[in-house]
What does this fold into?
Amino acid sequence: MNPKCAKCGHPLTNESEIKASDAGPPGNKSDTTTVVCSNCGHLNQVNVGQIRIRSNPRGTGAHYASKITKFGPGHSLCLATLNAAKAQSFESGLGLNDVWHKIRQFCNDNGRRVPTKGGTVGRLSELQGLGLVTSARNEIELTDPETMSFRPSSVNRWFLTEAGIVGAN
Ligand SMILES: [Zn+2]
It folds into this structure.
């Protein structure tokens, strides 16, 4: 996935100067950036349209969510954490590590038992099944605008649906 100069075919690498990048963070709608060829000086419009959000359709969470009869403290902790972080969109969403670290901090501060990370992702999946939380990941992530490096994204971001935002209903 190495872009090349449209004029001379020279690879656009870390030797190339990025003139006017409007390629924002993953998930950003801007999808082109101007890169100056280090060989011939040609201004290349490089398409970074590979950055694309693939949303999971609502309700693709834990398949057993409909069997949840008790809304436990783990569910409340997840919802409270996402609400406190205002994680209401992909852009503001939190990775599992972030969610878990915040929950662990809260539990330590309040003398509560810290749930496992596996338990936390289970509660998030159940909340997703209930339509309160959703998740999405970038298919491809721009890791370094200087070198135009990409990598497959591995981080799923969790955020609230409208139904899960406290005070929205
Ligand atoms: Zn060139």
Remarks:
- The first strand starts at residue 17 and ends at 21.
- Helices lie at 73-84, 96-109, 117-129.
- The chain has three helices and nine strands.
